[in-house]
Structure formats: C-alpha cells, structure tokens
Amino acid sequence: MIQHNLISIDVAKNVFQVCGLTSHNQVTFNKSIKRKDLVDFMANIPPVEVAMEACYSSHYWARCFDSMGHRVKLIPAQHVTPFVRGNKSDRNDAVAIGEASRRPNIRPVPIKSLGQQDLQCLHRIRERYVTQRTALINQAKGLLAEYGIIAPPGHKAFCRLLREVAQPEQLLLSPLLKRQLTQVGDEYYAHTDRIDEIQHTLTDFAKEHPLCQILLSVPGIGVINATAIYSAIGDGSQFNNGREFAVWLGLTPKQYSSGESFRSGGITKRGNRYLRKQLVHGARAVLSRCKNKTDRLSAWANPLIKRRGFNKASVAMAARMARTCWVLLNKKEMYQLTS
After folding, report:
1. Helix (H) or strand (E) holding 194
2. Does domain 6-101 bear CATH number 3.30.420.40?
3. Cut 0.85: pTM above it
4. CA–CA separation, 256 vs 262, rounded Å?
5. Does an H or E element contain 52, and which?
C-alpha cells in the first residue's frame, strides 16, 4: 500500500480539500472534508507533514494541527499559484500546495502565536479607525470650503474649526449644517477615543514584553512599530540575517540583470505593506532630527539626504532600521547609540 508522507489542505470556510502525497508527489487521496469533521480526521492520522496556504484562518489551523504532533508549513499564496495545473479548482489547488511546500527555496510563513495575532488584530482595528477619522476630516473640510471656511492641516486645527463653526455668531452656515457638523464632531471624538484606547493597550503590552523593549531602544521605533514588528515576525528567527528581513519587507531595490547588464530600480514593495509604511514614517522622524548632530547614525544620514534627497534617504533609513531590529532581536541586546 502506498503511504503518504505529506498532507496538503486547501483551507476554506465550510468545506476543506485534503490531499495526500507520497515522497514522489504521487497523489494517494484527494477528497473534500467538512469543517466539523476535519479535526477528527487529522487527529486519527499519525504525525505527518501538513502544508497549507498562508491565508484566512490558516494560523488557527496550524496551531491546532501542531498540537496534534503534525509538522505544519504555511506557504505564501503567491508561490502556490505557479504550481496549479489545469483549471482553477479545490482539487488542483490542494495538489499545488503540496508541490510548492517541497520547493527548497520557498520560505514558509512562521505560525503566529495567540499573542501575535491579538496584536495584529489591534493594529488592523486601529488602522481602520485612523482611516475613517482621516476621511471624516477631509470630507468636513471639503464641505466647509464650499462655504468659504478654510482650516490649516492638523488635528488641533480641525478641533478648533469645529468649535468655531458651532458658535451662534457664525453666520456663514445655516442651523441645519451646524447640527450636522456637531454630529461630525461627535463621530471624530469617538474615533479618537478608540484610537487612544488601543494605543494605551499596545503601550502596556510593549512595556511588559522583553522583545518589544529591545525594539523600542532603536531610533525611530515607537510603540506602534515595536508591536507591529513583533506581531509580524516574533523573534525574527525565520530570517538568516537582517537583509533578508529588509527584503521580506520590500525595502530593497528591484534588480534587473541579463548577461553583463545590471540595473537597480525602486524598492520592490513586497511583503507587509502596513509594517513597511510604519517603518518609513519612523525613518522620517529620525532623519528630521539628524541635522546638526555628529553621532554615527547622523554622520551616515546627513550626507545621504544631501546626495539623494529626504524621501529616498527615508527609505534607506527604514531598511537600515529593519536590519538593526533583526540584529538586536537575534542577539537579545539593546541598541547603543555610538558617537
């Protein structure tokens, strides 16, 4: 009887496609299993390697199968697509996941712990509130501009604007619009309160977690960046060096080479878009404070700003911060600023 040594699972909401493969990628079975039966099915199988696509609910199932003794690999979705043969179907997807998991140069996604997933949820909820609050401000300013009322940028200026337009002596606006703007203000302050509440929760976690404390010692890394990095990579052990982390974030240049021709382009923008954005914001904060300083970091940054401009220097600084974070996480040491 042919025995499988790999089970690949195409994760879904209610019906999962489960495929068994031998060491030569020969399919032993490929069948659909309902969600309520999947746990019992996997529990009755001897420990084996399990491959899944890193997608919706995959980390939950990975922790579940890992507790049963199985060895779980999560494969990035973009690396599975080239192995799909024939038409798009669950059966073909399950086979493709198994074949992709055996490629030597495909890096699996680390399984997130419950704590990492909790942090990731907080960041996603916070980002939604920030986006909605920004849209609210832009809409309110756009509407008021139709009445000849303009406000400078910034949250303080917007709060002052809301107070001014609500005054009885403001004759440019009708009572109807004033009532609507009062509700806009209530919505704005509700979003701000939720953002502050999540910020306090993240701050409390960062103060207690040793890896976050290491990350907080790096210039440009605050509570948001520290908790975002930890939720994404944990201790960073899945990377061999700091450059691999920077490449994973998409902060390294694109490369075009053929024969003797070699060209570099803009950054690849691969990987975690949210984390890359936050690191660039942190890099901008660092560069804005490097002027007239003589420490080692400023001595590297100031000539770069003059030579390449502030924006490109910010991306270079973000890549340097990513590499520094990996080194410190690997060594379990705090950052030391040298002169």
Report:
1. helix 175-208
2. yes
3. yes
4. 6
5. strand 49-53
